[in-house]
Design brief:
Structural class: mainly alpha
Strand order of the largest sheet: 1-2
Distance between the termini: 32 Å
CATH architecture: Orthogonal Bundle
CATH topology: Arc Repressor Mutant, subunit A
Helix content: 40-55%
Largest sheet: 2 strands, antiparallel
Oligomer: single chain
Radius of gyration: 13 Å
Length: 81
């Protein structure tokens, strides 16, 4: 997967509500602890994969990228702790 695919998925993560700005400083996006939002990211990625947005990548590759991107989300704010 390329950088463009990761950027698409990062946008989906933000759009779904799986991350949100820190409630204190608002400078960093952090994990929202929202299972429904995370499921929505997978659904959004599946729909975009079906539409061909990820090119020749397999659905499994796209789902792995979603999983990896979600695991990279910051759990607590690096500024506020």
């Amino acid at each position: 997967m390329n950088k463009e695919a990761r950027e698409i998925i990062d946008g989906m993560i933000k759009q779904s509500g799986a991350i949100s700005p820190c409630n204190i400083c608002h400078n960093y996006d952090i994990w929202s602890d929202n299972d429904e939002a995370e499921k929505l990211v997978y659904a959004m990625a599946t729909n975009e994969w079906k539409s061909g947005r990820f090119g020749p990548s397999s659905r499994e590759d796209v789902m792995q990228l979603v999983k990896h991107a979600l695991s990279d989300v910051t759990i607590s704010c690096p500024s506020c702790g």
